[in-house]
Amino acid sequence: MKKLLVGALLVLVFLAYSLPPYLTGGSRVPLDDQPNWYYGLLVGHILLGSVAMLAGLVQLGRRWFAKYHWIAGRIYVACALPVGLAAIAIGTVTPFGPVNAASNVTLGSLMLLFTALGVRAIVGGDVAAHRRWMLRSAALMYSVIINRILGPIIFLVLDAAGAPSSMTDAVGPALVAWPSWLIAIGFCEWWLRRTPPKRRRVAGTPARNGEDPLRPGSERVSLGGGGGI
Ligand code: HEM
After folding, report:
1. DSSP code of 226?
2. Tens digit of pLDDT for each residue in 25-63?
3. Is the pTM of this model over 0.70?
């Protein structure tokens, strides 16, 4: 419970810091050279990203919120899709340079892929694989918090090292973007190896028989507690 509370606090602080400019028509991203459609997608990305993060907390606290798992899961997946697609679109035309764009597109695509694999696994009744893919998806979704913490640190280090501002502007964003989500997914893989689920394959009826595998009480939702943090 302590880990979940710390996680929830981090998410709430991140959202309280990130959201206000975008609720009042402002932006922290320079908009001068961006196409017309950019700002609408950016705001949609941020609002749905916030909902996905909050729904994800319910999933990570599975031990306490088990009865909300199936509804929070649907909300998470419904938000993850537009968040990832919008991230790829705005990420392609990022004002922070091509290396940053490559990171954005890779991150958005992997998050979408892992979410889709997580959904496919649960539809097929494989709860252990569902857990692994959805934790990977969440690691990438929450890596935006690492990004915002790493950003000022990298820029301070470059500054302290006497890097000229032209160099800081050119390489700084890329030095933040790639490590942020590589750290998150690396940590997630370490965590998955450290805490295998208690039951790997869920016994029950074949997957596509009309039963909802995420609904509480479903025979196939019987992972032995390893789904949350
Ligand atoms: C799959 C993960 C994500 C990707 C690939 C991604 C990508 C992006 C991109 C490309 C931008 C525009 C700035 C730039 O060009 O670098 C952006 C901005 C932003 N994103 Fe995301 N994002 C992701 C997840 C999230 C989530 C879950 C949130 C939660 C609310 C979020 C909140 C924001 C905010 C607040 C901004 C505006 C910049 C700021 O004010 O700091 N992002 N994101």
Report:
1. T
2. 999 999 999 999 999 999 999 999 999 999 999 998 877
3. yes
The overall longest dimension of the chain from CA atoms, in Å, is 64
C-alpha to C-alpha distance for 178 and 137, rounded to whole angstroms: 16
Report how many domains make up the chain.
1
Q: Is 199 inside a domain boundary?
A: no
Does ligand 1 have an atom closer than 6 angstroms to the CB of 138? no
Q: Minimal CA–CA distance to 15: which of 148, 153, 152?
A: 148
Task: Place 152 in a pLDDT band, splitting at 50, 70 and 90.
Answer: very high
- The C-alpha atoms of residue 96 and residue 141 are separated, in whole angstroms, by 20
**Token pair for 78:** 């419904």
Going by pLDDT thresholds of 50, 70 and 90, the confidence category of residue 196 is: confident
pLDDT digits (tens, 9 = 90+) for 211-224: 455 554 443 444 43
- Does residue 90 form part of some domain? yes
Q: Is 172 part of a structural domain of the chain?
A: yes
For residue 174, what are the domain limits? 2-27+34-194
Cβ of 74 below 6 Å from ligand 1:
no
Is residue 168 domain-resident? Answer: yes
- Mutation to probe ligand 1, out of 15, 46, 148 (largest number of atoms < 8 A from CB): 46
144 CA to centre of ligand 1 in angstroms: 7
